[in-house]
Design brief:
Elements (H helix, E strand, L loop, with lengths): L76 E9 L5 E6 L7 E5 L3 E6 L2 E2 L5 E2 L12 E6 L8 E7 L5 E7 L8 E11 L11 E3 L5 E4 L22 E5 L28 E4 L4 E6 L6 E5 L5 E7 L13 E2 L2 E2 L15 E4 L6 E6 L12 E5 L4 E5 L10 E5 L4 E6 L5 E5 L4 E9 L1
Antiparallel strand pairs: 1-27, 2-3, 3-4, 4-5, 4-6, 7-8, 8-9, 9-10, 11-12, 12-13, 13-14, 15-16, 16-17, 17-20, 18-19, 21-22, 22-23, 23-24, 25-26, 26-27
Protein backbone atom coordinates (compact mmCIF):
# COMPACT_ATOMS: atom_id res chain seq x y z
CA UNK A 1 0.00 0.00 0.00
CA UNK A 2 1.00 3.60 -0.48
CA UNK A 3 1.32 5.97 2.42
CA UNK A 4 -1.84 6.59 4.51
CA UNK A 5 -4.49 8.95 3.17
CA UNK A 6 -4.73 12.41 4.63
CA UNK A 7 -7.33 12.94 7.32
CA UNK A 8 -9.18 16.10 8.28
CA UNK A 9 -8.08 17.49 11.65
CA UNK A 10 -11.03 17.57 14.03
CA UNK A 11 -10.05 20.57 16.08
CA UNK A 12 -11.71 20.64 19.47
CA UNK A 13 -11.47 22.87 22.50
CA UNK A 14 -8.18 21.34 23.63
CA UNK A 15 -5.52 18.96 22.42
CA UNK A 16 -7.28 16.07 24.14
CA UNK A 17 -10.06 16.42 21.60
CA UNK A 18 -7.84 15.52 18.64
CA UNK A 19 -10.13 13.25 16.69
CA UNK A 20 -10.60 12.44 13.05
CA UNK A 21 -14.05 11.98 11.55
CA UNK A 22 -15.27 10.61 8.22
CA UNK A 23 -11.88 10.90 6.67
CA UNK A 24 -9.87 8.81 4.30
CA UNK A 25 -7.89 6.04 5.93
CA UNK A 26 -4.92 4.45 4.31
CA UNK A 27 -3.03 1.33 5.19
CA UNK A 28 -3.04 2.13 8.90
CA UNK A 29 -6.07 1.91 11.15
CA UNK A 30 -4.91 4.72 13.44
CA UNK A 31 -6.05 8.29 12.88
CA UNK A 32 -3.75 10.79 11.22
CA UNK A 33 -4.43 14.53 11.33
CA UNK A 34 -2.42 16.68 8.93
CA UNK A 35 -1.27 20.17 9.68
CA UNK A 36 -3.74 22.78 8.37
CA UNK A 37 -1.30 23.70 5.61
CA UNK A 38 -1.76 20.24 4.10
CA UNK A 39 -5.45 20.86 3.44
CA UNK A 40 -6.00 22.22 -0.08
CA UNK A 41 -8.06 25.23 0.98
CA UNK A 42 -6.47 27.47 -1.62
CA UNK A 43 -6.81 25.07 -4.54
CA UNK A 44 -7.93 26.36 -7.92
CA UNK A 45 -11.66 26.72 -8.42
CA UNK A 46 -11.45 24.54 -11.51
CA UNK A 47 -10.86 20.78 -11.26
CA UNK A 48 -7.32 19.77 -12.21
CA UNK A 49 -8.60 16.54 -13.74
CA UNK A 50 -12.15 16.29 -14.99
CA UNK A 51 -14.00 13.03 -14.27
CA UNK A 52 -14.36 12.44 -18.00
CA UNK A 53 -10.57 12.30 -18.27
CA UNK A 54 -10.18 9.62 -15.62
CA UNK A 55 -9.24 6.11 -16.65
CA UNK A 56 -12.23 3.95 -17.39
CA UNK A 57 -14.83 6.70 -17.20
CA UNK A 58 -17.89 6.43 -19.43
CA UNK A 59 -18.86 8.95 -22.06
CA UNK A 60 -21.31 11.77 -21.46
CA UNK A 61 -24.83 10.85 -20.50
CA UNK A 62 -28.00 12.72 -21.20
CA UNK A 63 -30.45 13.96 -18.58
CA UNK A 64 -32.12 11.33 -16.45
CA UNK A 65 -35.84 10.74 -16.41
CA UNK A 66 -35.97 11.91 -12.80
CA UNK A 67 -38.68 14.59 -12.52
CA UNK A 68 -38.57 17.97 -10.91
CA UNK A 69 -35.46 19.50 -12.51
CA UNK A 70 -34.23 21.20 -15.62
CA UNK A 71 -34.38 24.85 -14.51
CA UNK A 72 -31.31 24.88 -12.26
CA UNK A 73 -28.42 26.89 -13.73
CA UNK A 74 -25.17 26.38 -11.79
CA UNK A 75 -23.29 28.89 -13.94
CA UNK A 76 -25.01 31.93 -12.39
CA UNK A 77 -24.68 30.77 -8.80
CA UNK A 78 -22.44 31.68 -5.89
CA UNK A 79 -22.74 30.41 -2.33
CA UNK A 80 -21.93 31.85 1.07
CA UNK A 81 -22.18 30.54 4.63
CA UNK A 82 -24.06 32.62 7.17
CA UNK A 83 -23.52 31.80 10.88
CA UNK A 84 -26.63 30.83 12.84
CA UNK A 85 -25.25 29.60 16.18
CA UNK A 86 -21.88 28.59 17.62
CA UNK A 87 -20.83 26.79 20.82
CA UNK A 88 -21.63 23.37 19.35
CA UNK A 89 -19.07 20.66 20.16
CA UNK A 90 -17.89 18.63 17.16
CA UNK A 91 -21.18 18.79 15.19
CA UNK A 92 -21.58 15.96 12.68
CA UNK A 93 -25.15 16.04 11.36
CA UNK A 94 -28.12 18.40 11.05
CA UNK A 95 -31.79 17.57 10.51
CA UNK A 96 -35.35 18.38 11.58
CA UNK A 97 -38.26 16.57 13.23
CA UNK A 98 -40.96 17.35 10.65
CA UNK A 99 -43.33 18.27 13.47
CA UNK A 100 -44.11 21.86 12.54
CA UNK A 101 -41.97 23.25 15.36
CA UNK A 102 -39.28 24.70 13.09
CA UNK A 103 -36.58 23.28 15.36
CA UNK A 104 -33.22 22.21 13.96
CA UNK A 105 -31.49 19.23 15.55
CA UNK A 106 -27.68 19.01 15.50
CA UNK A 107 -25.78 15.81 16.32
CA UNK A 108 -22.58 16.18 18.32
CA UNK A 109 -19.95 13.45 18.12
CA UNK A 110 -19.65 13.26 21.90
CA UNK A 111 -23.15 11.79 22.17
CA UNK A 112 -25.48 14.76 22.45
CA UNK A 113 -28.28 16.02 20.21
CA UNK A 114 -28.74 19.79 20.47
CA UNK A 115 -31.75 21.93 19.50
CA UNK A 116 -31.62 25.23 17.64
CA UNK A 117 -34.92 27.09 17.90
CA UNK A 118 -35.61 30.54 16.47
CA UNK A 119 -31.91 31.03 15.86
CA UNK A 120 -30.92 30.16 19.44
CA UNK A 121 -29.05 27.14 20.76
CA UNK A 122 -30.90 25.66 23.72
CA UNK A 123 -28.77 25.03 26.78
CA UNK A 124 -29.92 21.49 27.60
CA UNK A 125 -29.44 18.69 25.07
CA UNK A 126 -32.40 16.94 23.51
CA UNK A 127 -30.57 13.65 24.06
CA UNK A 128 -27.35 12.75 25.87
CA UNK A 129 -26.01 9.22 25.46
CA UNK A 130 -22.34 10.01 25.90
CA UNK A 131 -22.00 7.28 28.53
CA UNK A 132 -23.06 4.62 26.02
CA UNK A 133 -20.61 5.26 23.22
CA UNK A 134 -17.01 5.62 22.15
CA UNK A 135 -16.26 9.06 20.72
CA UNK A 136 -13.08 10.06 18.90
CA UNK A 137 -11.51 9.36 15.56
CA UNK A 138 -14.40 8.34 13.33
CA UNK A 139 -16.47 7.03 16.23
CA UNK A 140 -19.26 8.60 18.23
CA UNK A 141 -22.86 9.63 17.70
CA UNK A 142 -23.01 9.71 13.91
CA UNK A 143 -26.60 9.89 12.64
CA UNK A 144 -30.16 10.94 13.50
CA UNK A 145 -33.55 10.59 11.80
CA UNK A 146 -37.06 11.20 13.09
CA UNK A 147 -39.94 8.88 12.25
CA UNK A 148 -41.90 10.27 9.28
CA UNK A 149 -45.04 10.39 11.45
CA UNK A 150 -43.35 12.12 14.37
CA UNK A 151 -44.72 13.11 16.85
CA UNK A 152 -47.75 10.85 16.32
CA UNK A 153 -45.13 8.12 16.33
CA UNK A 154 -42.80 9.43 19.05
CA UNK A 155 -39.68 7.59 17.90
CA UNK A 156 -36.47 8.94 16.49
CA UNK A 157 -33.46 6.87 15.47
CA UNK A 158 -29.74 7.22 16.10
CA UNK A 159 -26.58 5.56 14.82
CA UNK A 160 -23.57 5.38 17.14
CA UNK A 161 -20.50 3.33 18.03
CA UNK A 162 -20.88 1.64 21.40
CA UNK A 163 -18.31 1.23 24.17
CA UNK A 164 -16.75 -1.64 22.22
CA UNK A 165 -16.55 0.47 19.06
CA UNK A 166 -19.29 -1.49 17.27
CA UNK A 167 -22.24 0.01 15.40
CA UNK A 168 -25.62 0.39 17.09
CA UNK A 169 -28.81 1.62 15.44
CA UNK A 170 -31.54 2.23 17.98
CA UNK A 171 -34.68 4.23 18.66
CA UNK A 172 -35.59 6.63 21.44
CA UNK A 173 -38.88 8.41 22.16
CA UNK A 174 -39.91 11.97 22.92
CA UNK A 175 -43.28 13.49 23.71
CA UNK A 176 -44.79 15.90 21.21
CA UNK A 177 -43.11 19.29 21.42
CA UNK A 178 -40.69 18.17 24.14
CA UNK A 179 -37.20 19.63 24.13
CA UNK A 180 -35.91 16.62 26.06
CA UNK A 181 -36.18 12.98 24.95
CA UNK A 182 -36.62 10.01 27.23
CA UNK A 183 -33.10 8.67 27.66
CA UNK A 184 -34.46 5.42 29.13
CA UNK A 185 -36.55 4.62 26.05
CA UNK A 186 -33.79 3.08 23.93
CA UNK A 187 -34.71 0.08 21.80
CA UNK A 188 -31.78 -1.44 19.89
CA UNK A 189 -32.65 -2.44 16.32
CA UNK A 190 -29.25 -3.41 14.94
CA UNK A 191 -25.85 -4.07 16.40
CA UNK A 192 -22.90 -5.30 14.36
CA UNK A 193 -19.15 -5.56 14.76
CA UNK A 194 -16.68 -3.04 13.39
CA UNK A 195 -13.31 -4.69 12.67
CA UNK A 196 -11.38 -1.38 12.71
CA UNK A 197 -11.99 2.07 14.23
CA UNK A 198 -12.62 3.89 10.95
CA UNK A 199 -15.17 3.84 8.11
CA UNK A 200 -18.32 3.54 10.18
CA UNK A 201 -20.61 5.41 7.78
CA UNK A 202 -23.34 6.45 10.18
CA UNK A 203 -26.00 8.32 8.18
CA UNK A 204 -29.70 7.64 8.71
CA UNK A 205 -32.58 8.79 6.50
CA UNK A 206 -36.19 7.85 5.91
CA UNK A 207 -37.12 7.38 2.29
CA UNK A 208 -40.38 8.44 0.69
CA UNK A 209 -41.45 4.81 1.10
CA UNK A 210 -41.34 5.20 4.90
CA UNK A 211 -38.46 2.76 5.33
CA UNK A 212 -35.28 3.53 7.27
CA UNK A 213 -32.04 3.69 5.25
CA UNK A 214 -28.70 3.18 7.01
CA UNK A 215 -25.25 3.86 5.58
CA UNK A 216 -22.37 1.64 6.66
CA UNK A 217 -18.67 1.91 5.88
CA UNK A 218 -16.51 -0.99 4.76
CA UNK A 219 -15.19 -1.62 8.28
CA UNK A 220 -11.99 0.35 7.97
CA UNK A 221 -8.25 -0.05 7.62
CA UNK A 222 -7.25 0.77 4.03
CA UNK A 223 -8.30 -0.73 0.71
CA UNK A 224 -11.10 -2.82 2.24
CA UNK A 225 -8.89 -5.78 3.25
CA UNK A 226 -11.88 -8.04 3.97
CA UNK A 227 -13.64 -7.17 0.69
CA UNK A 228 -16.69 -6.05 2.67
CA UNK A 229 -17.89 -3.67 -0.01
CA UNK A 230 -18.55 -6.57 -2.39
CA UNK A 231 -19.39 -9.34 0.06
CA UNK A 232 -23.07 -10.10 0.59
CA UNK A 233 -22.69 -11.85 3.97
CA UNK A 234 -21.87 -8.63 5.83
CA UNK A 235 -23.73 -5.37 6.45
CA UNK A 236 -20.51 -3.38 5.97
CA UNK A 237 -19.94 -1.21 2.90
CA UNK A 238 -23.65 -0.93 2.16
CA UNK A 239 -26.84 1.06 2.25
CA UNK A 240 -29.35 -0.91 4.32
CA UNK A 241 -33.14 -0.64 4.12
CA UNK A 242 -35.45 -1.86 6.89
CA UNK A 243 -39.09 -1.55 7.91
CA UNK A 244 -39.19 -0.27 11.48
CA UNK A 245 -43.01 -0.32 11.72
CA UNK A 246 -43.84 -4.02 11.34
CA UNK A 247 -41.33 -5.86 13.51
CA UNK A 248 -42.68 -8.14 16.20
CA UNK A 249 -41.32 -10.02 19.19
CA UNK A 250 -37.55 -10.23 19.20
CA UNK A 251 -37.48 -8.91 15.63
CA UNK A 252 -37.34 -5.13 16.01
CA UNK A 253 -37.81 -4.57 12.29
CA UNK A 254 -38.96 -6.35 9.15
CA UNK A 255 -37.41 -6.72 5.72
CA UNK A 256 -39.32 -4.88 2.98
CA UNK A 257 -40.50 -7.56 0.54
CA UNK A 258 -38.99 -5.73 -2.45
CA UNK A 259 -35.49 -5.53 -1.00
CA UNK A 260 -33.38 -6.84 -3.89
CA UNK A 261 -31.61 -9.63 -1.99
CA UNK A 262 -34.45 -10.65 0.31
CA UNK A 263 -34.73 -14.11 -1.28
CA UNK A 264 -31.03 -14.64 -2.00
CA UNK A 265 -29.74 -17.33 0.35
CA UNK A 266 -26.13 -16.12 0.38
CA UNK A 267 -27.00 -12.45 1.03
CA UNK A 268 -28.20 -10.51 4.05
CA UNK A 269 -31.72 -9.28 3.32
CA UNK A 270 -31.19 -5.80 4.80
CA UNK A 271 -28.87 -4.86 1.92
CA UNK A 272 -30.27 -2.25 -0.47
CA UNK A 273 -27.07 -1.07 -2.23
CA UNK A 274 -23.46 -2.29 -2.05
CA UNK A 275 -19.93 -1.39 -3.12
CA UNK A 276 -19.40 1.63 -0.84
CA UNK A 277 -16.29 2.64 1.10
CA UNK A 278 -17.46 5.18 3.67
CA UNK A 279 -20.83 6.75 2.80
CA UNK A 280 -20.58 9.48 5.40
CA UNK A 281 -23.63 11.64 4.54
CA UNK A 282 -26.65 10.79 2.38
CA UNK A 283 -30.00 12.44 1.71
CA UNK A 284 -33.22 11.99 -0.22
CA UNK A 285 -34.40 14.61 -2.66
CA UNK A 286 -37.74 15.48 -1.11
CA UNK A 287 -39.26 16.13 -4.56
CA UNK A 288 -38.01 13.18 -6.63
CA UNK A 289 -37.16 10.56 -4.00
CA UNK A 290 -33.63 10.12 -5.43
CA UNK A 291 -30.99 9.06 -2.90
CA UNK A 292 -27.73 11.08 -2.96
CA UNK A 293 -24.63 9.59 -1.35
CA UNK A 294 -21.26 11.17 -0.63
CA UNK A 295 -18.76 8.29 -0.49
CA UNK A 296 -15.37 9.14 1.04
CA UNK A 297 -12.50 7.96 -1.13
CA UNK A 298 -9.16 6.28 -0.55
CA UNK A 299 -5.99 7.92 -1.81
CA UNK A 300 -7.03 9.75 -4.97
CA UNK A 301 -10.75 10.38 -5.56
CA UNK A 302 -13.86 11.53 -3.73
CA UNK A 303 -17.21 10.69 -5.27
CA UNK A 304 -20.92 11.48 -5.24
CA UNK A 305 -23.34 8.68 -6.15
CA UNK A 306 -27.05 8.74 -6.88
CA UNK A 307 -29.65 6.01 -6.72
CA UNK A 308 -32.72 7.12 -8.60
CA UNK A 309 -36.04 6.66 -6.80
CA UNK A 310 -37.05 3.02 -6.53
CA UNK A 311 -33.74 1.60 -7.78
CA UNK A 312 -32.43 -1.05 -5.38
CA UNK A 313 -29.49 -3.41 -5.67
CA UNK A 314 -26.97 -0.98 -7.18
CA UNK A 315 -23.29 -1.83 -6.87
CA UNK A 316 -21.12 1.30 -6.67
CA UNK A 317 -17.97 -0.69 -7.23
CA UNK A 318 -15.76 -0.33 -4.17
CA UNK A 319 -13.12 -1.75 -3.76
CA UNK A 320 -12.72 -2.45 -7.45
CA UNK A 321 -13.30 1.21 -8.36
CA UNK A 322 -12.41 4.53 -6.74
CA UNK A 323 -14.22 7.42 -8.41
CA UNK A 324 -13.97 6.64 -12.14
CA UNK A 325 -10.64 4.82 -11.87
CA UNK A 326 -9.68 1.21 -11.25
CA UNK A 327 -8.58 0.64 -7.69
CA UNK A 328 -7.90 -3.10 -7.89
CA UNK A 329 -7.15 -4.90 -11.12
CA UNK A 330 -8.50 -3.75 -14.47
CA UNK A 331 -12.21 -4.44 -14.04
CA UNK A 332 -13.53 -0.95 -13.33
CA UNK A 333 -15.48 -0.82 -16.60
CA UNK A 334 -17.61 -3.78 -15.49
CA UNK A 335 -21.24 -2.94 -16.38
CA UNK A 336 -22.27 -4.33 -13.00
CA UNK A 337 -20.85 -1.20 -11.35
CA UNK A 338 -22.86 2.01 -11.18
CA UNK A 339 -20.45 4.93 -11.74
CA UNK A 340 -20.56 8.14 -9.71
CA UNK A 341 -22.37 11.22 -10.92
CA UNK A 342 -19.20 13.15 -10.18
CA UNK A 343 -15.76 12.71 -8.65
CA UNK A 344 -12.95 15.08 -7.75
CA UNK A 345 -9.30 14.49 -7.03
CA UNK A 346 -7.41 15.12 -3.81
CA UNK A 347 -6.05 18.29 -5.36
CA UNK A 348 -9.39 19.79 -4.30
CA UNK A 349 -10.14 18.02 -1.03
CA UNK A 350 -9.71 14.88 1.05
CA UNK A 351 -13.11 13.79 2.40
CA UNK A 352 -16.40 14.41 0.60
CA UNK A 353 -19.35 15.69 2.63
CA UNK A 354 -22.53 14.62 0.88
CA UNK A 355 -25.20 17.30 0.63
CA UNK A 356 -28.80 17.94 -0.35
CA UNK A 357 -30.91 18.85 -3.34
CA UNK A 358 -32.24 22.25 -2.36
CA UNK A 359 -36.03 22.43 -2.30
CA UNK A 360 -36.53 25.48 -0.08
CA UNK A 361 -37.83 28.88 -1.13
CA UNK A 362 -35.49 31.46 0.44
CA UNK A 363 -32.67 30.82 -2.07
CA UNK A 364 -34.34 30.75 -5.51
CA UNK A 365 -31.01 30.64 -7.39
CA UNK A 366 -30.21 27.35 -5.67
CA UNK A 367 -33.64 25.83 -6.30
CA UNK A 368 -33.33 22.32 -7.69
CA UNK A 369 -29.52 22.16 -7.36
CA UNK A 370 -27.48 19.60 -5.45
CA UNK A 371 -24.93 21.21 -3.12
CA UNK A 372 -22.10 19.27 -1.50
CA UNK A 373 -18.75 19.96 0.15
CA UNK A 374 -15.44 18.59 1.39
CA UNK A 375 -14.06 18.55 4.90
CA UNK A 376 -10.59 19.81 3.99
CA UNK A 377 -10.93 23.47 3.10
CA UNK A 378 -14.72 23.48 2.90
CA UNK A 379 -15.07 23.80 -0.86
CA UNK A 380 -18.70 24.02 -1.97
CA UNK A 381 -19.84 22.53 -5.28
CA UNK A 382 -23.18 22.47 -7.07
CA UNK A 383 -24.45 20.29 -9.88
CA UNK A 384 -27.64 19.67 -11.83
CA UNK A 385 -29.22 16.60 -10.21
CA UNK A 386 -31.25 15.71 -13.29
CA UNK A 387 -28.08 14.52 -15.06
CA UNK A 388 -26.63 11.07 -14.36
CA UNK A 389 -23.12 12.21 -15.26
CA UNK A 390 -20.29 12.04 -15.45
CA UNK A 391 -20.31 15.69 -14.45
CA UNK A 392 -17.83 18.25 -13.26
CA UNK A 393 -19.50 19.76 -10.23
CA UNK A 394 -19.15 23.54 -10.36
CA UNK A 395 -16.94 24.75 -7.53
CA UNK A 396 -18.60 27.94 -6.32
CA UNK A 397 -16.91 28.70 -2.99
CA UNK A 398 -13.70 27.93 -1.11
CA UNK A 399 -14.81 28.63 2.45
CA UNK A 400 -11.74 27.51 4.39
CA UNK A 401 -14.04 25.74 6.83
CA UNK A 402 -14.17 22.15 8.11
CA UNK A 403 -17.58 21.17 6.71
CA UNK A 404 -18.65 17.96 8.44
CA UNK A 405 -22.31 17.84 7.37
CA UNK A 406 -24.95 19.43 5.16
CA UNK A 407 -28.62 19.03 5.99
CA UNK A 408 -31.95 20.78 5.79
CA UNK A 409 -34.64 22.14 8.05
CA UNK A 410 -38.34 21.44 7.82
CA UNK A 411 -38.84 24.12 5.16
CA UNK A 412 -36.09 22.70 2.97
CA UNK A 413 -33.52 25.40 3.78
CA UNK A 414 -29.95 24.09 3.69
CA UNK A 415 -27.42 24.24 6.52
CA UNK A 416 -23.82 23.15 7.08
CA UNK A 417 -21.82 22.41 10.21
CA UNK A 418 -18.23 23.48 10.83
CA UNK A 419 -16.65 20.82 13.00
CA UNK A 420 -13.75 22.92 14.28
CA UNK A 421 -15.57 26.17 15.07
CA UNK A 422 -18.71 24.45 16.35
CA UNK A 423 -20.97 26.58 14.15
CA UNK A 424 -24.23 25.88 12.41
CA UNK A 425 -24.20 27.80 9.10
CA UNK A 426 -27.00 28.69 6.71
CA UNK A 427 -26.18 28.13 3.03
CA UNK A 428 -27.00 31.34 1.15
CA UNK A 429 -27.10 31.74 -2.63
CA UNK A 430 -25.57 34.73 -4.35
CA UNK A 431 -25.37 35.74 -8.02
CA UNK A 432 -27.47 37.24 -10.77
Amino acid sequence: MSSPDRHPPLAGLAAVLLVVVVACEGSQATSFAPAPSEAPASASLEPSVAPSEAAGSPGPAGPSASPGGGAFDPETLGLDLEPVVDQLVLPLAVTHAGDGSGRIFVVEQRGQVRIVRDGQLLGDPFLNIGDRLTAGGERGLLGLAFHPDYPDDPRFFVNYTDLEGDTVVSSFSAEAGADRADGDSEVVLLRFDQPYPNHNGGALAFGPDGFLYISTGDGGAGGDPHDNGQRMDTLLGKILRIDIDTGSGDARYAIPPDNPFEDQSDALPEIWHLGLRNPWRMSFDRETGDLWIGDVGQGSWEEVDVARAGSGGLNFGWNRVEGFECFEGDSCDDPAYTPPVTAYSHDLGCSVTGGVVYRGTAQPLLQGGYVYSDFCGGNLWVLDPTNDGPLDGRLVAATGRDISAIGEDEAGEAYATDLSSGELLRIVATGD
